[in-house]
């Protein structure tokens, strides 16, 4: 049996909220948001809360929301299928050059990132054009075309999104590519991204439709972001199809980027190397069908990773902190889940106001990364202490590898 490692928020008007947050701060806004979500009539058993919990748009980040016969699109969010991929290489630390700037710039050339215009728009092409698309991205897109066409039947505007053009691109915000070392000085490559512009368009469209349905049916909600699709209604099946497609896109996007990063490092080092010794590719913003406590339900993980017994997962720290490759313990009370990272303690705006450039430079002294004001919102002090986060979920996962980044490319 697991030692009980969660605290419970109970209330007469909502399902229990079980929180794996001992020793880590939880703001009152997140608790309020969680109890509103727990008041929905279709919550299955309870909501599980991970130690990286903080206020989010649509739903609390770091929450696991199991539902019966309904899905809340805003809880899934707009970065559908956002997640992590990591690959252990045969390289050792002494195979890397002393100056890692060349590796960082090679990765930056190989993976479009930040606010870089899409490939076709840089060339003056129409969105969705196949011109100037790298072969690896085009091949990954081919397997998605039929599903995309089906989504377009219900959502014609999606044709105008950067879909094939964004395949193999990182995006902005907290998305990143890192080169890391484990306890044995083995080199890992790790990256974080999702379904990009096309997933964003799908998420926003169906969140809007859910809100309109609530108005049409005159359903009062504790928060408009809790608008939902009941199973069997007009938009439910279309949304499930679209969200599963976007999750597949996100997974393929990470695979394309990983292959491009590996090639770029091989070229920079002037040697080939294996990078498939251990590989993990996991979502942490998604919805899926699962069986828990004897019932088939929809599980929305908003900033949480599936951690069934034996599942490998990735829990990254911040730019200057440790990250972890973990193995799930299959704790049913958490709906077999764990955190997706350290979790923010400062909003992006707050971090830019409170953290100086000098503090950021000091905190990332051992990492080859950007050291300018444009990334201060991602500085280590903007996040919770990753060691406290790991201690709070010791009954959810076991640590397999501890990683320390030496190169970080931010979106």
In words, what does this structure look like?
- This protein has 411 residues and is α+β, with helices and mostly antiparallel strands.
- Helix content is 30%, strand content 26%.
- It contains eleven helices and 17 strands.
- The strands form four sheets. A seven-stranded antiparallel sheet has the order 10-6-8-7-17-15-14. The protein has a six-stranded mixed sheet with strand order 1-2-3-4-12-11, with helices on both faces. The protein has a two-stranded antiparallel ribbon with strand order 5-9.
- β3 (47-54) and β4 form a beta hairpin.
- The model is unreliable at 117-131 (pLDDT under 50).
Structural class by sheet pairing and helices: alpha+beta
The share of residues in extended strands comes to 25-35%
Strand order of the largest sheet: 10-6-8-7-17-15-14
Number of strands: 17
Short summary of the structure?
Helices cover 30% and strands 26% of the residues. The protein has helices at 28-38, 73-76, 101-110, 119-122, 135-142, 145-154, 196-216, 236-269, 348-354, 357-363, 386-392; strands spanning 7-11, 14-19, 47-54, 61-67, 70-71, 83-92, 176-181, 186-193, 229-230, 278-283, 285-292, 295-302, 304-306, 312-315, 322-328, 337-339, 397-410.
Features:
single chain; 411 residues; alpha+beta; seven-stranded antiparallel sheet; six-stranded mixed sheet; 17 strands; globular
